[in-house]
Amino acid sequence: MTDKIDGQIVGRGAAEGARLFREWFKNLTGAAERGEHTAYVFVMGSIAEILRVFDFNLVFPEINSLQTAVRRVAHEYLNVAEDYGYSPDICGYVKADVGVQLRGGEHPMGKIPKPTLALLTNACNTYLKWGEIWERLYNTRVLTVDVPGSRNARGQTWAGDPDFEHDRQYVEYQLRELITACEQITGKKFDVDRLREAMRHTNAMSVAWRRVLELNKSKPAPFNALNEGTIYLGVANALRGSPEGAKYFQDLVQEMEYKSAHHIGTLSEEKYRLTFVGVPCYPIFRRFYELFSEWGGAFVASTYLEFAAGGLNLGYEYALNRPLESLAEGILITVRHAMDAMFFQNDWLVEGIDQYHVDGIVYHPIKSCRTVSTGLADNRRAVMAARDVATLFIESDMMDKRVVSEAQMKNRIDAFFEGLATRKLHAA
Amino acid sequence: MAQEFWRWKEYTWRAPDISWTDGKIITGGVDVGSVSTQAVVMVDGEIYAYANMRTGSDSPDSARKAMNWALQDSDLTLDKIHYIVGTGYGRVNVPFAHKTITEIACHARGANYLYGPSVRTVLDMGGQDCKAISCDERGKVTAFVMNDKCAAGTGRGMEVFADLMQVPIEQLGELSLQVDKEPEPVSSTCVVFAKSEAVGLLRKGWRKNAVLAAYCNAMAHRVCTLLERISIQKDFAITGGIAKNVGVVTRLEKELGVQAIKPTFDTQIAGAVGAALLGKAIAEQEKK
C-alpha cells in the first residue's frame, strides 16, 4: 500500500514542476505569436500580483537564461551577445538574454515574446542596466521600483516604527505609479478585487514554501535544495499569484510531509548534510550535483532558495483588507530580505547549522555575478569564526562553461568530503 | 639545442638498507600532478624507492613510467605491491591503483610522516596550484583552502620565469636573494601579466636578480594571503616543488613571521608518500 502511495506522491513536485514549466513556455510562445502584452520581471521582486490584474504575460529573463545553460546551449547565446559587442566579463544572464533578443526570441523552450513593460527593482544593480537594453532595442517602458534596503546588518525596522512606515509609503507611492502605467499600456482599468485574488494565491504559496523549507530539517532531507529546490523555486517565481501556483505548493507540502513522515530522502544514504551558498553551476548542473551526491552529500538548505524566491521563504501573508498598503509592506520586507540574504547571510548560515543538522557549508561564488559573490570569502571566515564547521569554497559560473573547470572543482570537493569523513571519525 | 632553463632534473632513489623481501606490507603511492609525477614504494611504512619525473601528455603513461623507474634495478615488481593509491590531478589515470585519494589528504599525511606529528599547517606549493592545509596529529585534514585557477604562485609560473630570465630553475631562488634592496612585488594575479611586467622592468634597466626578487616576493605574498585564510598554526611545513625555492620560502617566512620546518628530504614526494601510507592503512584494515 505504501509503495502505491509512494509512487503517487514521491517525486510529484519535480515532475509536475517540469510539466508546468513546459506549459508556461508554451503559453509564452503563443503570446509571442499573438503579440500579447508581456512584462519582463525579475525573481527578486516581480510584483506579479499587480501585473496579473492586467493580464500581462510574465517573462523572467533570468529563468530564460539559466534554461539555456541547463540545456547546454548557453554558449551559443553568449557568443551572439559577445559578437554584438558585449564584454565576456559582464553578467552571463544579461548576455544570454541579449542573445535571445538578437535571435528574435528564439529559445530552446519556445519563443519569448518582446516586452511591452519591463519592471525592475533595485535588488540587483544589473537589473537597471538590463532594462536599458530593452529600452534601446524596443523602446520598452521601463519602471524601477526602488525598495529601501537594510541600513545595517541587524538594524531592520518593522511595522509600527516610523522609519518603516516612511519606507512603506515610499514603495506604495511607486506601486500606484505602476498601476497607472499598466492602465496606460494595456488600456484596462485596475480591479482591486483581482489584486486581492492574486495576493491570496501568493499568500498560499508563501505559507507553503516556508513549510517546505522547514520540512527539509528532517533526517533524511525530503528534497535536495540544489536541484529539486531549483525546480520548486522556478515554479514559485513563474506562477506567483496564480491558482496553479497555489495548488502546486499545497501539493508540494503534502509530498514533503509524506516523505518526512516516512523518512524518504533523496539518496540511498544521506551521509553528509550540506548548505549551499550562491547560485548553482548550471552549465554542468547534473554533474555538479553528482560531485556531491556520489559522496553521500545532500544539500538540505540553500541561500539561493532564500534570495531568489521573491520573499516567499519568509511566509509573509498579505492583509487582503488593505491590499495596496499590505502589498507595499510585503515588497518592502521581502525585497529587503532578498538583498540581506545576499549580503548578510552569515547569521542565517550559523543558525542553520543546528536547525538543519548541517555538516558542511559549500560556498560557490560565480564569475558572472559579483553581486552574489562579493564578500563570500569574508562570509566564510565569519561563519568559521563563529562555529567549527567544515566549509568548501569553489568558484565557477552559472552560465559560462568557459570558466567552469570540473577537474579543479572535483579536486576540492573530494578533499572536502575526505575532511568531513575525518571530522565524523573524530566526533565518533 | 638551446638550454631549457625551466627544465628541472628528473631523478630516482632507492634505500640501500631495506630489503623488500623482509617486508610484511608493501605499498605504493603515485602522485600524477600537472607538472610532475612521483612514484613512491614503501616497505612496512619506510621509503624503499621513489622516482620523480615530468608529467607527459599521457597521464597513465606518466604513472607507469614513474613506477617502473622507481622499481628499476630492483627485483620488486608491480604485482608484489599489496596496495597502490593514486593521487594528484591525474589520480584517476593511474591504471594500476587500487584507490584514489586527493593530494590534499595525501600531502597532509605525507607531511605528518616526513616532518613529524607536530605539524598542524601544511603549505603544498605544487605545479599548478597551492594548498594551505590544516591537519591533526595523525595527518588528517581538518580544513584547507586553495588558490584560484591562475598559475601565478605555482611551479608552472616559476618555470615561465626561469625561461624568461634565462636562469636555471634550481638557481632562481638563490639569485633572487642577491639584491641590495628588496623590490616591490610584480603583479601576482596572473602569471602572464607578471611576465609582461617583468619584461617592462628589464627594459627599464633592472638587473635580472632584482626582477627575480620581485617575482619571488609576489609569489610569497600571494601564498601568504592563502595561509591567512586558514589561520596558520605551528608547526608549519612546506611541501611540493616550490618548497625548494629559497627565494620564495625566505620571503614567505618573513612575511608570516613563522619559520617553516627545514626539510631533510625531497619535498616533492610528500604527496606520493602520503598516498603510500594511506594505502598501507587501507591494506592493513582489509587484512583484518
Describe this structure in words.
- The complex is a heterodimer of chains A (428) and B (288).
- In chain A, helix 2 runs antiparallel to helix 11 (243-261).
- Chain A has helices at 2-9, 12-34, 48-53, 61-70, 74-84, 92-102, 125-138, 162-186, 192-215, 228-238, 243-261, 285-293, 304-307, 323-343, 346-355, 370-373, 376-386, 406-427, and strands spanning 38-40, 57-59, 106-107, 110-111, 117-121, 141-145, 272-278, 297-302, 360-364, 390-393.
- In chain A, strand 3 (106-107) and strand 4 (110-111) form a beta hairpin.
- Chain A is built from 18 helices and 10 strands.
- The longest helix of chain A is centred in the middle third of the chain and has 25 residues, at 162-186.
- In chain A, strands 2-1-5-6 form a 4-stranded parallel sheet, with helices on both faces. A 4-stranded parallel sheet of chain A has the order 8-7-9-10, sandwiched between helices.
- Chain A starts with a helix and ends with a helix.
- Chain A has one domain.
- Chain A is α/β, with parallel strands linked by helices.
- Helices cover 57% and strands 10% of the residues of chain A.
- Chain B is an alpha/beta fold.
- Chain B folds into 2 domains: 11-110 and 268-287, Nucleotidyltransferase, domain 5 (2-Layer Sandwich); 120-260, Nucleotidyltransferase, domain 5.
- In chain B, 36% of the residues lie in helices and 19% in strands.
- Chain B has a 6-stranded mixed sheet with strand order 1-4-3-2-5-6.
- Chain B is globular.
- Chain A binds chain B through residues 377, 381, 384, 390-391, 393, 395, 405, 407-408, 411-412, 414-415, 418-419, 422-423, 425-426, and chain B through 89, 101-105, 129, 136, 140-146, 148-149, 229.
Defining key terms:
heterodimer, A: 428 residues, alpha/beta, four-stranded parallel beta sheet, 18 helices, 10 strands, 57% helix, 10% strand, B: 288 residues, Nucleotidyltransferase, domain 5, 2 domains, six-stranded mixed beta sheet, four-stranded mixed beta sheet, 8 helices, 19% strand, globular
